[in-house]
Every structure is written in structure tokens, then in C-alpha cells.
Write a structure and sequence with these properties.
Immunoglobulin-like, 261 residues, four-stranded antiparallel sheet, 0% helix, 3 domains, flat, five-stranded antiparallel sheet, 22 strands, mainly beta
Length: 261
């Protein structure tokens, strides 16, 4: 989908689009403030083109707020991520430091998802460790040139024996499929992409109860596509495991996931 602004704006105009957390809603950010009451957009999809008029609300000045993306214990597989309430534009990694429990520096990669407005810290985790992540003032700059205050996070991993493992065996699938594990807060903990029938192993899971679901990736783009009236598109089919799966520490579980036509 392509979104193009049709309203005439000054040369100094700048904009960003972000997706609201856990929603299909898009936010359109712009500067400078315009003496207009609406903006006109052309939205183009694979099968349709339409024009929309969006009424503008008063822009209230806000400060930059940073928060961890996920709550609860860390896992080995998932990177540590933070969200921002305003679009992030600049990351100064010289103002970011990551150390382990022995105060040794830990190397890391930074990945900014500009649509989700989420910053990912990728690094190799070891068991029974306590990492300290510190972002000094000016490490993050947002679209409106706000910067962060000092931020500090503790990232703890447990012993391997404190985690559990789950093997799911899908049956009767129409591939490709996306198999996801979801915690009881409706957060996606981990996922796998399958192009043919095969067992799926989820290792080093925190003990707890999980939902398992399968997305039938009909357009083969590697993600779930919701329905869209504008694009005249139905939502991709989703199938859920019939009951919660309980994972316990030091246990290996095997479950057969029979997908109904």
C-alpha cells in the first residue's frame, strides 16, 4: 500500500508514518505545524486507488517516553526491544553501553523498525547472566528533536534448566505457514515459518501457559495480513490449538497440531 500526500505544503515540510502498537492503525506525523484544518491523501493498493480527507487535531507538544516492548522474564531467542511514543529518527550508539554481570562490555547490533517505531538490541545471551543496558542523554532523538534522559535496564537470563522446550508437529497444513506461540498477555513470544510439513521446536521457553496458532500465509509475505475494506482483501486464515499448552522447567513437550480444513 502506498500513501501519498496530495495537499500542497511548504518545502520545509517533513513527515513520518508509524503503526500503533498492537493495532492496524497508522499515525501520520509532520512538521512544521500547518495552518490547515485537513490533509488530503491518495492511497493506492494492488487493486484500488482512493482519496481521503483527514481532519487535523490540535498538536499537543509531548515529551519523548521510552518503554520496554515486552514485560516479564527474558528469553535467549528474543532480542531486547524498546518502544517510543514519538518517531525515533537518530540513534547515537556512542551514548549506549551494554555490560554483563562481570562488568565486561558486550557487543550488540541495533535495528530500528521505523514503521513500528521500535529499537531492537541484538546480542548473544548466556545463561544465568545479568546484563545492564544504559542509554545516556542524547542516545535517542525523535522526529521533533526531543532527546532522552538517562535510561537504564536490567536484562536477566536464567539457567537453561529453568526453561522448558516444546515441539509442535503440524498436520494437514497448506503451506507456507507461520506458527506462533503467544503468552497469556497476547504477546507473540516466538514464531517459525514453514514451507513444508516438519516438526517445529521452540526451545528455552519460560515456564507458563501458551496459546499456539497457525497463520496460513496465502500471499507468502511472511506475516499476517488482516482484512482490508479499502484493498478489498479478506483476512488470512488463522487456526488455534484447541487448548492452552503448559510448559514446565526442565521438561520437553511434544504436541500434535491437527489443522482443520
Amino acid at each position: 500500500m502506498d500513501i501519498k500526500l496530495m495537499t500542497k505544503v511548504p518545502d520545509s515540510f517533513n513527515s513520518r508514518i508509524t503503526q500503533a502498537k498492537d493495532k492496524d492503525t497508522l499515525s501520520y506525523w509532520f512538521r512544521p505545524k500547518l495552518e490547515l484544518d485537513s490533509l488530503i491523501f491518495k492511497v493506492s493498493g494492488p487493486k484500488t486507488i482512493d482519496t481521503f480527507t483527514v481532519r487535523l487535531k490540535d498538536q499537543l507538544k509531548d515529551s519523548l517516553v521510552i518503554s520496554p516492548f515486552r514485560d516479564g522474564p527474558e528469553t535467549f531467542e528474543k532480542p531486547f526491544e524498546i518502544d517510543a511514543n514519538l518517531p525515533l529518527t537518530t540513534i547515537d550508539r556512542s551514548q549506549i553501553k551494554l555490560i554483563d554481570k562481570d562488568s565486561a562490555d558486550v557487543s550488540f547490533n541495533l535495528v530500528l523498525d521505523s514503521l513500528k517505531n521500535r529499537l531492537r538490541f541484538e546480542f548473544e545471551k548466556t545463561e544465568s547472566n545479568n546484563y545492564r543496558l544504559k542509554l545516556y542523554p542524547g542516545a535517542l532523538t525523535d522526529f521533533f528533536e526531543n532527546t532522552n534522559d538517562t535510561l537504564s535496564y536490567s536484562i536477566r537470563t536464567k539457567a537453561v534448566s529453568d526453561y522448558g522446550n516444546l515441539r509442535l508437529i503440524p498436520r494437514n497444513g497448506k503451506y507456507p505457514l507461520i506458527i506462533q506461540l503467544i503468552n497469556q498477555n497476547d504477546q507473540i513470544i516466538t514464531e517459525r515459518y514453514l514451507t513444508s510439513e516438519a516438526p517445529v521446536d521452540f526451545t528455552n521457553l519460560n515456564p507458563g501457559k501458551y496459546n499456539a496458532r497457525v497463520i496460513f500465509d496465502q500471499n507468502k509475505n511472511g506475516k499476517y495480513d488482516p482484512g482490508s475494506f479499502l484493498l478489498k482483501r479478506q483476512a488470512e486464515r488463522v487456526s488455534y490449538y484447541p487448548e492452552l499448552i503448559e510448559v514446565r522447567a526442565s521438561w520437553n513437550f511434544i504436541e500434535e497440531f491437527i489443522l482443520q480444513d
